[in-house]
């Protein structure tokens, strides 16, 4: 049987003139007049003769051709068309060769609708772009395992813990996205990598905040009527984040209520839910002072185009030698609520734009505490202006 199959020899393969030569079992060698030569296999499946190439003689030896031929003959004996089976396996291999950088970009595109400003700020993608893709971007996603992830994120796992955590989270999302596309990936790779990396030692550092008792003196120093001073004043008075304040449009203010669009609010799953911010008498006065500077509908435009930057306000505080930053005034306000008032927690948290309570509690609670917050923000404005030093009492409703 072996002799019937193995009719050719290595010497015969090398020296044979142009023509077709059978090795047995359907394996053939075709030597062309131009010097080229190819192996091919003929098999019969379901009464049909099928022919498939096995590679050139230059790359495939006689031994390798025989091994490859036996593999496909075995498949044919099972009643499977070897030509179609090879095509199927090629499609599977090609599908699993998707590179991580392509999967990451596709995952980012599919999530843009859930990201602030369609992800234009780049905060969702940047942990991947800076710390993962330079090392793993060119690797097929199906080949990425926990050791690859560990080696990639180990340099920043403790030194830049928050960034590393975000990068790990985004990578996990990419793997799930790849699985949804039908790719063969290890969905547990990120969890295994965390186990290999160990617990993070880095402690979260909060944005430095000015103690609430020192806020009145700083507020009084913002007196030159410039856009930067006015923006900082309104930031302090409303306790909002800097982004919605910098992009504040005049048409968002109606009476003494400023409606912050849902997409401008950080951390809210429902980006359609707007937040009504009550403006104190002092806040309304600041808005009136800033109106002459308005451009293109924005209350706080920059010198050239667009709106004032967060860095502009932060630099003012830096130049004064302050550790505190603009975002820290939210902490100043929250500490004042806790230490100088008896404000109910849900009122204080809502004033900061935080989501309060679980989904069931929120479903039954129909109020946004606007009236209580209106009183609270008026009292805060009094404190900021140095007009009150006593504990504020608010009715708990």
Automatic annotation (TrEMBL):
A GO BP annotation: DNA integration
SUPFAM superfamilies: DNA breaking-rejoining enzymes
GO molecular function list: DNA binding
Domain of life where this protein originates: Bacteria
UniProt keyword DNA-binding present: yes
Cited PROSITE patterns: TYR_RECOMBINASE
InterPro entries in alphabetical order: DNA_brk_join_enz, Integrase-like_cat_sf, Integrase_catalytic, Integrase_DNA-bd_sf, Integrase_DNA_bind_dom, Integrase_recombinase_N, Phage_int_M, Phage_Integrase
The Tyr recombinase domain, residue ranges: 205-377
Keywords associated with the record: DNA integration, DNA recombination, DNA-binding
Keyword DNA-binding: yes
Similarity annotation: Belongs to the 'phage' integrase family.
Name under which the protein is recorded: Integrase
Organism listed in the record: Rhodovulum marinum
